[in-house]
Amino acid sequence: MSEDALYDIRDDRFPSLIAGSARLEELYSGCRWAEGPVWFSDLNCLIWSDIPNERMMRWVPDGSVSVFRSPSNYVNGNTRDRQGRLISCEHGGRRVTRTEFDGRITVLADSYKGKRLNSPNDVVVKSDGSIWFTDPSYGIMSDYEGHKAEPEQETRNVYRLDAPTGEIEAVATDFIQPNGLAFSPDEKQLYIADSGSSDHEVPRHIRVFDLVDGKKLTNSRYFCSIDSGVPDGFRFDVSGNLWTSAADGVHCFAPDGTLLGKIKVPQTVSNIAFGGVKKNRLFITATQSLYSIYTTTNGAQYP
């Protein structure tokens, strides 16, 4: 793939974020719908989900790929808490879980106000230990990525979970299908994707909220729209640029919402994660495959 075909430069700031000699590498193919990449620096590996195949996969830098967990209960999004434990969103169990260091799985949330969650989708952990996750209905719409069922929640919400107490609170209730989410590097804002246009006319945008006391969301406003497909998973680099999935690749937006450019990927992208020794390698889950490409910036994610 030529550099011209690989990159779609929309703003003069984008070339400083990409390495001209870097190439898109396909690291693995054979998934049905790859999702939820998360980098483990201490284990020097990437773990991601293959939802319809009900498994989680592991890639290591020598190129080896193995099954990390099967069955996975249709795990979708993954992240790590500040202690390094794996936090996962299960479509099958309609719950958020934590994998302990000894391999035990702890259920963190599976209901709200006495009713089952829809199908937790993506998750992030704040520095105070609170867990924030989205709960659209994708995992219960059919038996392909979970178990078909009727929603019990009246709305598709975004939740904040206080891990020590188990208290759960709906912090946003006006999304059609909330999807990916990420904190700004300074944790003063939370960005949330709405992928409602996957089964509605609108929307296909990412909104941003200010945080009050680290717990409440306020001042909801539009940040950006995706012009190809829908926004799914996204992450920030250390300069506050937002890198998001789209149908034609990975889109990079400046902190002011300007589209800086795109990395073109031959399959529909679902999610991304920065990783590698210096967190300057962008890992991309896209339909059947796992890709990666080196950048000249570094991911703002922990641990």
UniProtKB/TrEMBL annotation:
EC number: 3.1.1.17
One annotated GO molecular function: gluconolactonase activity
Binding positions (a divalent metal cation): E35, N179, D232
Keyword Mitochondrion: no
Enzyme class label: hydrolase
Cofactor(s) required for function per UniProt: Zn(2+)
Domain SMP-30/Gluconolactonase/LRE-like region, first and last residues per copy: 33-287
Keyword entries, A-Z: Hydrolase, Metal-binding, Zinc
Superkingdom classification of source: Bacteria
Active-site positions on this chain: D232
SUPFAM superfamilies: Calcium-dependent phosphotriesterase (SSF63829)
Cofactor binding annotation: Binds 1 divalent metal cation per subunit.
The keyword Cell membrane is assigned to this record: no
InterPro entries assigned to the protein according to its UniProt record, in alphabetical order: 6-blade_b-propeller_TolB-like (IPR011042), SGL (IPR013658), SMP-30 (IPR005511), SMP-30/CGR1_Lactonase (IPR051262)
Sites where the protein binds substrate: N121, E145
Protein name from the UniProt record: Putative gluconolactonase protein
Species of provenance: Rhizobium mesoamericanum STM3625
